[in-house]
Amino acid sequence: MGRRNLIGILFFSIFILLFPLVGRISAVSHYVDIMIFVGLTAMITMGLSLLMGYAGQISLGHAAFYGLGAYTSGILTAKYGINPWPALLAGIFLSAAVAVIVGSPSLKLRGHYLAMATLAFGEIIYIIFNETVSLTEGPDGFGNIPHLSIFGFKFESILANYYLVWAVAIIMLIFLLNIIHSRVGRALSSIHGSEIAAMTMGVNASRYKIQVFVISAAMASVAGSLYAHYVQFINPPVFDLFFSIKLLMMVIIGGMASVWGAIIGAALITFLPEWLLFLEDFDILAYGLVLLLIIIFLPKGLFSLPGILYRSVTPRLKSRS
Amino acid sequence: MENYGLINQLAQYLITGITVGSIYAIVGIGFNIIYNATEIINFAQGEFVMLGGLVMVTLVHTVHLPMPLAFLITIAIVTLVGLLMERLAIFPLKETSVMRLVIMTIALSILIKGLAMFVWGKNSFALKPFSGDTPLSLLGASIVPQTLWIIGITVLLVVLLSLFFGRTIIGKAMSACADNLEAASLVGINAQRMVMLSFMLSAGLGAVAGMIITPMALMEYDRGAMLALKGFGACILGGLGNFYGAVVAGILLGLIESYGAGLISSGYKDALALGALLLVLFIKPSGLLGSAEASKLKKF
Which residues in chain B touch residue A281, judged by CB atoms under 8 angstroms apart? Predict the structure, then answer.
């Protein structure tokens, strides 16, 4: 996985461990709650960054997998009284199965065609959430979804859910970093470089692409299940096309070539509306403007910012000595 | 008698489908024009349509300009927005990835939507029809005159654009850039200027779509995204970059929606249209009229 990533995970874990201390400051005490959503979103964007940054495939349909996870967990536990853990597994299997069925023909498409196909898929699933009222309660959504619990411990409080979500997110991060720094990761980047060249070297491009698509779908599904059990209520707008577009934006703004960037992107875009709240109705303007500036001034995403700052400081330090 | 009623209904769905489809077709053509010049999908395309509708409403109902004059001024204003967008946000990013440009257009669409909310607020606005609202009867279906305006203007636009791309020097230069940007630059075509023109043309087209649909469907600041989605669908279904493909596919999508809503289920009408789109892509990955050969030349 590389020493730098190990150190990164160590420091990041310490940061996550200590972050809830901000909860003691009353002005930002709700940040712990927001960080839960950052963690859930990061699970999806990390998978997407593997798909986009490493395998070079776009998806505008990942909100659908998030929704499939949430609805499977929600319906099975709240309406059929099934234990949340097997329900979560059922969500993963359903999302993975749908990803194989949709991914196999879709991932043969290129560029904008693939974007449209995944977008159409996401929108169809969204319409199904809205229209199958007998199962999903349609646009009204439904509540009474139980909290998760393990060995008698119930994940009820914000703090418990915070640690649960981030533990899962960090396990996913380690898993993805391992994939990237393995044979599979190198095969993926070769597909991104040139699919034809990769295939002549014996890389089964279409199989790898589908595998990554399925992995990212399963991760989104887990995020959806955890969302359902934390919020205890689900309705369709959470899983709409605009969330898919936002996910894509997070990956690109964070820095497409890095799983770390996907986490940073998820954090920024999730926190931004909160920071712009004081602008009231003008927040949408500022939101667009911030995105615009990042795209113009940070071509490689937020993840490249420390490097740029470091390089701009070091020459001065050197000239001084 | 019942049969007669059914035929009437089918005719009604036909007209509705073609009308809605015409709008998708115009938006789809707008996508294609920018795609051909830059290989990017302009997610702010729907915002041009929204602006067209809202600017027209203001000029007609607040400034009280006569309709034809308001029509022309609206086109001019929205074209200017397209020009500014290209100069201020797209041009400075030259030599970058298609993906980054696409994300830039998403940021722009959010920004334009925000500005529109600031100017017009969150209400829906109505615009009076171009020529009264006494329904006409055709094939047993009753039609509001605005329908004819929409279909007529779409046909006119398609004819004018074919003439533009086929007969004029600028139009031919734009088509040349679409086919092969480097070769076009080699023979002395200013590709930068073509990109700029493509944004202006596409913005102007969007404005027209917005102005003709508003009397039938109202307009509000956040309508752009939905219109863009359908237009994008039309342009992909027809084959990216293919002008006539977008027209055929736009009308096809409109018809599927209209018959789907009437005969099957109104809730699933969009799912039916998108399902048909997916099916076509799985069978013919380059769209209805798109050529696989041509799309191989493109990076995106």
Answer: 117-118
User: What residues make up the domain containing A132?
Assistant: 31-275
Interchain CB distance below 8 Å, A288 and B111: yes
Q: Which residues, including other chains, have CB under 8 Å from residue B251's CB and lie 6 or more apart?
A: B17, B18, B21, B22, B24, B25
CATH number of the CATH domain containing A219: 1.10.3470
CB atoms A296 and B300 under 8 Å: no
Count CB atoms within 10 A of the CB of residue A173: 23
pLDDT digits (tens, 9 = 90+) for B251-260: 999 999 999 9
More confident residue, A54 or A78: A78
Using the Cβ of B291 and the Cβ atoms of chain A, whether some distance falls under 8 Å is answered with: no
Structural domains counted in chain A: 1
Using CB atoms, pick whichever of A127, A245, A282 lies closest to residue B270.
Answer: A127
pLDDT-flagged residues of chain B (< 70)? 1-4, 292-300
Q: Does B107 touch chain A (CB under 8 A)?
A: yes
pLDDT digits (tens, 9 = 90+) for A99-121: 999 988 888 888 888 888 999 99
A267 touches B at CB < 8 Å: no
Boundaries of domain holding B160:
2-123+141-297
Strand ranges in chain B using DSSP code E only, listed in sequence order? 136-138, 141-143
Residue A46 resides in a domain: yes
A131 and B265: CB-CB below 8 Å? yes
Q: Which of residues 147-176 of B touch A (CB under 8 A)?
A: none
Question: Tens of pLDDT along B70-90?
Answer: 999 999 999 999 999 999 888
Interatomic CA distance for residues B228 and A60, integer angstroms = 14
Beta bridge partners of A154: A149
Identify whether B135 is part of a domain: no
Residue B158 sits in a domain whose CATH number is 1.10.3470
Number of domains present in the structure of chain B: 1
Q: Which of A75, A168, A84, A71 lies closest to A125, judged by CA?
A: A71
A318 assigned to some structural domain: no
pLDDT on residue A315: 66
